[in-house]
Design goal:
Layout (H helix, E strand, L loop, with lengths): L1 E6 L5 H17 L8 E7 L11 E7 L8 E6 L2 H44 L1
Parallel strand pairs: 1-2
Antiparallel strand pairs: 2-3, 3-4
């Protein structure tokens, strides 16, 4: 479930669809995310009444499921550039998270095989 919150920014169906589309790509690659709660906050740092460039922030947090606790926050002068940065960084984090689990399982298997080999030699 993807929950999208707008902060200091007008609600936009286009922005909602782009967020759902981009995160849908991640969910396809990591099926465990289908049952996770994903909170996305789209924020504009500067007020439209002040001078100067606006800064858009996209904050994504995984609140449940296997990848619970992963947070990614990126900012850029365009909302869509910040969203692209978030998606790219999230893919890296999720891949690293999966790698960590695979390495642990591989080390357990090696340790178990080493124990079996030492038992065979003694017999």
């Amino acid at each position: 479930m993807i929950n999208i919150v707008f902060k200091n920014l007008e609600k936009s169906e286009l922005a909602r669809e782009v967020v759902r589309e981009r995160l849908g790509i991640i969910i396809e690659k990591f099926p465990d995310l289908q049952n996770s709660r994903i909170d996305v906050t789209l924020e504009m740092q500067n007020s439209p009444h002040q001078t100067g460039p606006d800064l858009f922030v996209v904050n994504t947090q995984l609140n449940s499921g296997r990848y619970r606790g992963i947070r990614v926050k990126k900012s850029a002068q365009s909302l869509y550039v910040a969203l692209a940065d978030v998606v790219e960084h999230m893919l890296e984090l999720l891949n690293r998270f999966g790698d960590r689990a695979r390495v642990k399982e591989r080390n357990k298997a090696r340790k178990f095989l080493n124990q079996l080999n030492t038992v065979k030699i003694e017999v």
